[in-house]
Each structure stands twice: as structure tokens, then as C-alpha cells.
Amino acid sequence: MANRAARILLHSIGAATMVYGYKGLSRLGDFDTWIRGQYGGHFQFLTIDGLFAGMLVMFTGLLLDLFPRTSKGSFIFESLTNFKRLLVMIALPVAAVVASVYWPLILVLPKLILTEDFTVEPTSKGDVATPFRIPLDIDLSLHGFPGPLLVLDFLLFEKKFSQETMQKYAPLLALCIGTTYAMWAEYCATKNNYFPYPFLTFSSLPIRVVIYATCTTFSVFVFRALNWLHQ
């Protein structure tokens, strides 16, 4: 009973935190309107794509928590369990990439990760648009809390993935996700004339390919490391 209560608590906090972060985007006023008016809207950002995957992990986990114990072994229960494990394989590596790229850049080179606030007109021709910073509570809900919450859920409440899964399927899934996002970001940029993240806009195509490949490889490494730490 205590274990079930802990599951419900973690999944409820996780779901509420991530929903709060996404809903908080509407508080950004004109900047939110400007982003939504672009092709792809907020879903240009890997952060938001990963956030929705994380939400699905938490909501699916909550559904499983609320199932009666007698339902274990049923088709619906087993299907939801397998679906959640697939979501974990997607959301956890993406959250690792988002946190590992976002926080170092936001602390050292914020202009490489923060979108310029084009809703504010420069006061003179020599002025340069400043990066738009979102409120801290929204920032933490989007970039700070999802990763640790997903790690806790995996280490505390999920079974360790098999060696075969880690060797064969995890890298293949990461490659599919990385390639899909790269193609999506590139396509959105052809419509908007710039990328959602300035460091991509500043980079040539070969450099962007290296960035996509490096992030994909890093996600596999982190996921394998977490699975290795799993007891």
C-alpha cells in the first residue's frame, strides 16, 4: 500500500508539474502569441516535445497506479505497462538531452539558447534585441523538474531493461527520434527562416548534423548509464 501511495504521489506531482509548465506558456503574453503564430508553434522546441512524452509517462503511470491489483495480468494492464516502458525509452533520453544542453548554455552563453524577444522594438538602430527569459517557475517546470522526476520513476518503479533492449532497440529508437526531430526542426526553419534555438540558426548544415548526431549519441549513453545503475 505504501509503495502504491508513493507511485501515485510521484506520478501526480510529475503530471501536475509538467502540465503547469506547458500551461504557463500562456502567461508569456505577446511572446507566446508570437511563437504560436510560427510554423510548428511551441512544438518546434525539443523541450516541448519531450515534455509531452514525459506527461504521457506520468499519466500512464497514474492509470496503472489506479488499476486494481486483480487487473495485473490482464490485456489492458499489460498493454499499458508496455506502452509506459516505451514512453520511458523516449522521454528519459530526451529529457537528459534537454537538461544537458539548456542549463550549461543558459548559465554561460544564454544568447545561444534563448530566443530573441522580437515582440519588443529596439529603441534605436544600434540596439540589439535581448533574449527572452521565461519566469523561473515555468523555466523549472519545463527544464528543471521533468528529468529528475523521470529518473526517479524509472529507478524506483520501473524494471531494468534487458541487455538486448539496450543494445538493439534503445539505439535504434534514439536514432529514429533524433532523425525525426532534426527533419522537423529543419523543415520548420524553412518556413520561419530561423530555428527555434539560436545555436542552430548560427550553425551551418554540417555543424547542425554534428549537433543532432552528438545529442542522439549522448541520449543513448545516458540511458545506458541509468539502466546500468538500476538495481
From TrEMBL:
<dbReference type="InterPro" id="IPR006838">
    <property type="entry name" value="ADTRP_AIG1"/>
</dbReference>
<keyword id="KW-0472">Membrane</keyword>
<dbReference type="GO" id="GO:0016020">
    <property type="term" value="C:membrane"/>
</dbReference>
<protein>
    <recommendedName>
        <fullName>FAR-17a/AIG1-like protein</fullName>
    </recommendedName>
</protein>
<feature type="transmembrane region" description="Helical">
    <location>
        <begin position="169"/>
        <end position="185"/>
    </location>
</feature>
<feature type="transmembrane region" description="Helical">
    <location>
        <begin position="45"/>
        <end position="66"/>
    </location>
</feature>
<dbReference type="GO" id="GO:0012505">
    <property type="term" value="C:endomembrane system"/>
</dbReference>
<dbReference type="Pfam" id="PF04750">
    <property type="entry name" value="Far-17a_AIG1"/>
</dbReference>
<feature type="transmembrane region" description="Helical">
    <location>
        <begin position="205"/>
        <end position="226"/>
    </location>
</feature>
<keyword id="KW-0812">Transmembrane</keyword>
<feature type="transmembrane region" description="Helical">
    <location>
        <begin position="86"/>
        <end position="105"/>
    </location>
</feature>
<keyword id="KW-1133">Transmembrane helix</keyword>
